[in-house]
Amino acid sequence: WLHLFRTPPSSVLPGAVFAVRSSAAMERVGRISKHVTVGVDAQPLSANATAVAESPIMAKLKGKIAALAKERVALKAELLKAGETKIQDVTVEMCINGARSMMTMVTETSDLDAAKGIAYRGMSLFECNKVLPKAPGGECALPEAAFWLLLTGEVPTDDEVKALTAELHTRSGVPQNVITTLNSLPKDTHPMTQLSIAMLALQKDSKFAAKYNEGMKKGEYWEVALEDCLDLVAKMPVVATAIYRRTFKEGVAGPAYNSKLDWAGNYAEMLGVNSSEEFKECTRLYLMLHADHEGGNVSAHTSHLVGSALSDPYYSWAAGLCGLAGPLHGLANQECLGWLLEVQKELGNQKPTKEFIVDYVEKTLKKGKVVPGFGHAVLRQPDPRYMLEREFALKHCKDDPLFH
After folding, report:
1. pLDDT (tens digit per residue) in 298-320
2. Is 396 left (phi over 0), alpha (psi -120 to 50) or beta?
3. CA torsion, points 273, 275, 278, 279, in degrees to nearest 10?
4. For residues 207 and 272, what is the distance between their CA atoms, to the nearest angstrom?
5. Which residue(s) pair with 117 in the sheet?
6. 64-109, pLDDT tens digit by residue?
7. Which of 317, 300, 291, 50 minimizes the C-alpha distance to 203?
8. In DSSP terms, which residues pair with 120 in a beta bridge?
9. Bridge partners, 118 (sequence order)
10. Angle 176-183/221-248 helices, nearest 10 degrees?
């Protein structure tokens, strides 16, 4: 902390100026020192940690996470007793190839198995889609339910999911300055760029940043970070809809926010693509399947890395989005669809044949290009996400030319 006091001696500064600078330095030291106390038995946050009185569902959610946190503290202490245990050998190839196959992180929320695909808290995606609560009359698990499972390790009840959805609706308001920031960007700015900018524009309202500046114990970090995360999840559909409408619909407003719908159903409706229940179900399924992807992929790892510096969730999420935007990560979805549209254009009115596809793929590869969407760094079996989406497509859009 000595650098805080490296002001010129009073002999070369007017006394008043020196006093002000010294006072500011001492105030800064005092604020920083509040973070030194690291007791794990931190008291609950004061009422001003959130803008409104805490809802019953938030109290319940925090209670479950707090119980898990105590277990994890004990587990960590137990594991550290074997802290010198060797896990694996590290080779030069592993280092050169980006830490591939190196076991260097612990991620509890989900796991990626080469044969079984992604599992949420030990449950396969097939199982998740079967047992997690659904919208009335729906067949696809709700993303909010997956979120609860990831946070608590428990399958939520219908009532818990409804209450969590209602909580998200109360947090969905987006400040006008964020929309103004988006509208200042050229409309041909890539949607992912717009989204990351919007996340940073929201950062000034970070509850974690505000509480950290006030001073809080380490044991309180997770609780205020959770507040930011829920705010982000709640506002994301509104921001994403604004980006979609200004980029692809000439800025014409779509359907209004509908708090009577679930989180994903409302997002699907606001997009204004169509008002069918099938589109809402498709959106629910897609977002549930992509709720988590262990900790080693680019976007998740980036978010964890940035967060490890105690950057608030807005910074972390924006950084993760920038990683997600790469063609070898999230942008592969766009690249894959673009490639399929090119194939469809080449086909014209012809029906696709094996010979045509083989020839087209060979031409693509000879040009030094790749066939996007094929191949995975870990999976050696069909991706369960694909299988569940294929099952949905066979039922609802089997005649779509882009599908069959």
Report:
1. 999 999 999 999 999 999 999 99
2. alpha
3. 20
4. 32
5. 113
6. 999 999 998 999 999 999 999 999 999 999 999 888 888 888 888 9
7. 317
8. 110, 123
9. 112
10. 40
By the 10 Å C-beta count (0-12 exposed, 13-18 middle, 19+ buried), 120 is classed as buried
Give the residue among 83, 261, 82, 75 at the shortest CA–CA distance from 153: 75
Residues 6+ away with beta carbon under 8 Å from 10: 18
Q: What is the pTM of this model?
A: 0.84
With a CB cutoff of 8 Å and minimum separation 6, the contacts of 24 are: none
Residue 167 pLDDT: 98
Tell me if 114 sits within 8 A of 381, measured CB to CB: yes
Provide CB contacts within 8 A for 359, sequence distance 6+.
Answer: none
In whole angstroms, what is the distance from residue 150 CA to residue 42 CA? 24
Instruction: Please write down the long-range contacts of 219-226, taking CB distance under 8 Å and 24 or more positions apart.
Output: 219/38, 219/39, 219/40, 219/41, 219/42, 220/42, 220/45, 221/310, 222/65, 222/69, 223/44, 223/45, 223/49, 223/62, 223/66, 224/45, 224/49, 225/307, 225/312, 225/313, 226/61, 226/62, 226/65
Distance of alpha carbon 232 from alpha carbon 171, whole angstroms: 9
Give the end-to-end CA distance of the chain in Å, rounded to a whole number: 65
CB distance 142 to 263 below 8 Å:
yes
